[in-house]
Amino acid sequence: MAKVAFVFSGQGDQYPGMGADLAQTSEAAEKIFAVCDEIRPGTSAMCFGGSAEDLGVTSNTQPCLYVMELAAAEALAERGLQADCVAGFSLGEVVAAAFAGYYSVQAGFRLVMRRGELMQACADRVRTSMVAVLKLSSEKVEELAGHFGQVYPVNYNCPGQISVAGQADQMRKFMAEVWENGGRAVPLKVAGAFHSPFMEGAREPFASAIDEELEKSPIGAIPLYSDVTAQPYGENFTELLSSQLCNPVRWEQLVRNMMESGVDTFVEIGPGRTLTNMIHRISVDVKAVSYREMLEENA
């Protein structure tokens, strides 16, 4: 039976003004912005009127994307559009868990604020960067990264595209090797070496924050897929969600596993089309659209 998956995007697609249209046109979305503003005053104002520079700071980016994405998902649900399963890319996994009912909107927002603070602190300790490597196989990227002590493949996005994180000076040399081997290296708009050992210092504090928010091991109303395992969550919720910070995102495999479970329609919940483009490259046999397209189809 055909299934629909809501997939929530990560950092990088944020832009000034994101979510303003949702707050103006959807009562459900407006409520999400209001709830999060009660916890962190000014979050909506930053989404709607903050500068690109302000939105690019990790401790701002993550709360703003959380509220915008959850508002978009609730706007779809308000129009009767339902997801059979959900997943999120990096930060998006925290949003997906809230939408799926693994914890409350408020708990998820507090968690994403803590996550942003912890990751920002790790990023501030060492000069790091991330790039998207194009046109090379996963095996070749892993080989080139292995030439350096502090360069790591971290996001297995789709065929011919892997994100790599590492220490800034080593990353410059790594990028040169990518070009020498026929690939392309495109710098990413993120402020840290996410999903790498550079984020290890955030894992245990974030796990503690999750446990403080949750009274028991949560069970969501909608199946949630893990970036770490590419499989649906089981009982080890805290372990998976916290270890995601310093382990690779297995996105291509996750999407393929969703397809094997019957998913034939993917709806990207986020300000851009990054996941939509990745899914199109993973398979031409499924439908992948943005939440805006789905809202327009069901106006």
Automatic annotation (TrEMBL):
GO molecular function: [acyl-carrier-protein] S-malonyltransferase activity
One protein family per Pfam: Acyl_transf_1
Recorded GO CC terms: cytosol
Coiled-coil stretches noted in the UniProt entry, renumbered to this chain: none
Catalytic site positions: S90, H195
GO terms for biological process, alphabetical: fatty acid biosynthetic process
Zinc recorded as keyword: no
Protein name: Malonyl CoA-acyl carrier protein transacylase
Keyword tags: Acyltransferase, Transferase
Superkingdom classification of source: Bacteria
Gene3D superfamilies documented for this protein: Malonyl-CoA ACP transacylase, ACP-binding, Malonyl-Coenzyme A Acyl Carrier Protein, domain 2
InterPro entries: Ac_transferase_dom_sf, Acyl_transferase_dom, Acyl_Trfase/lysoPLipase, Mal-CoA-ACP_Trans/PKS_FabD, Malonyl_CoA-ACP_transAc, Malonyl_transacylase_ACP-bd
PANTHER family assigned: MALONYL-COA-ACYL CARRIER PROTEIN TRANSACYLASE, MITOCHONDRIAL (PTHR42681:SF1)
Catalyzed reactions: holo-[ACP] + malonyl-CoA = malonyl-[ACP] + CoA
Malonyl-CoA:ACP transacylase (MAT) domain mapped to chain residues: 7-294
UniProt family annotation: Belongs to the fabD family.
EC identifiers of the protein: 2.3.1.39
